[in-house]
Amino acid sequence: MADSTNTAPLAGIKVIDWTQVQSGPSCTQLLAWMGAEVIKLEKVNGGDPTRSEMNDVDGSYSLYFLQLNANKKSITLDMKDPEGKKILTDLLKDADIFVENIGPGDVEKLGFGWDEVHKLNPKLIMASLKGFNQGSRFEHVKAFEPVAQSAGGAASSTGWNTGDNTAPTQSGAALGDSNSGMHLLIGILSALLQRQKTGEGCYVYQSMQNAVLNLCRIKLRDQLILDNLGELSYYAAYPNIKWGKAIPRGENAEGGLVLGWCYRAKGWETDPNAYVYIVIQQSEKGFEEFCNAMGFQDWLTDPKFNTANARDEHKAEVYKRVEEYTMQYDKYTLTKELGAKGVPVGPVMDWYELENDPDLNSDGTIVEIDQDKARGSFKTIGLPFTMSNFAPDYKRAPNLGENNEEILTALGYTADQIKELETKQVIGSNNGVKADLVAAK
């Protein structure tokens, strides 16, 4: 393994992290894993709300918090107190990046908007993550995961067009939260490269709505085609739908010109995730490989199936025959054997399977972090990409206010001054077990 102390991409970068819950912390988590010093600002009483949310172990912090705040430092700070503001001001003077996702307009009200911060430290990069764009008629609105998915076009294009439940549906993936954090990270890393040329920091603004829109960009393609043609033959609803002005739900279709669907596999009667996803490619070679793999050679000459347009017209028959085949085998056998014959295929993996997957647990995708004390070790998803000369050194998440003394001492505060700040509740106790754990019980 490479020496992460020498190859960490962001070693020497100091980040002031005024984020909470998931969207912002998911961004700063990656910064920390890439070697940046990340100082997390938290409320004096309770800290990040997720410290106590959905906690399953008494005397510990919740997995929600731990999986998003490993490798960080924690300082508790009353940001409405003048002395608390002075501490943040001092921290920003010596920082490279300032990330915040507090309520719309709140950072400006407290005196730490971009104009003030830029004057304070012209080299500082400030990054904000909010629900909607600057200047939007919804700029003032607080956004949570499903709000972003709804406003970003994910919910309206997800779900079913017929049946008992045709409501817009949000994805189980955190398209609004962690996705927004990763998009913000792209902007921050770009700003760091830009600063090398200009010597000056810039303001990076990421809306959750835009992050969802970016992942849904092909839906705009579909909308434009619908505007032009009045129908979408590659959608699952075709041809048995009355087309309206907007694209319909995507159901389980692949989303492009290939014919993809989720099929029952052996054991589906008792396992709700005994399914496999198979794509029938549009190309002549891809279709031939599929037919040979499945034993459907008759389709190669059958005009009802031997062209992509014909298969679109007869989707129901395609789905029926393919599923008659897939129900004979388990999803892993199907993936291994059909995949070896050139068919794009994948098992539907539930979260128990993912948690215990031997490949993911051995290749660094799922990592274990020792939180110590009541929690002990826990699993989390590690850095989602790999680098040939760097691997993160995964460390535990900080206790609430654990690094108060360290951080304030570095700013020049004496032990007596730190004790006074604690007594006045400008900062909280650094014993790590306080109001946040009490509230969790």
Explain what this protein looks like in three dimensions:
By secondary structure, the chain is an alpha/beta fold. It folds into three domains: 4-214 and 364-440, Crotonobetainyl-coa:carnitine coa-transferase, domain 1 (Rossmann fold), CATH 3.40.50.10540; 217-251, no CATH class; 259-343, formyl-coa transferase, domain 3. Helix content is 37%, strand content 12%. The protein has 19 helices and eleven strands. It has helices at 4-7, 23-33, 63-66, 82-93, 106-109, 114-120, 145-151, 178-198, 208-215, 217-229, 284-294, 308-313, 315-326, 331-340, 351-355, 358-362, 404-410, 415-423, 435-440; strands spanning 14-18, 37-42, 73-76, 97-100, 125-130, 203-207, 259-264, 275-280, 345-347, 366-370, 377-381. The strands form three sheets. Strands 3-2-1-4-5-6 form a six-stranded parallel beta sheet, sandwiched between helices. A three-stranded antiparallel beta sheet has the order 7-8-9. Strands 10-11 form a two-stranded antiparallel ribbon. Helix 2 (23-33) crosses helix 8 (178-198). The protein is elongated, with a radius of gyration of 26 Å.
At the fourth level of CATH, the homologous superfamily of the largest domain is Crotonobetainyl-coa:carnitine coa-transferase, domain 1
The low-confidence runs, each spanning 5 or more residues with pLDDT under 50, are: 432-441
Q: Span between N and C termini? A: 41 Å
Q: Identify the overall geometry.
A: elongated
Rg, please? 26 Å
Beta-strand portion reads 5-15%
Oligomer classification: single chain
H/E element order: HEHEHEHEHHEHHEHHEEHHHHEHHEEHHH
Taking the sheet with the most strands, its summary is: 6 strands, parallel
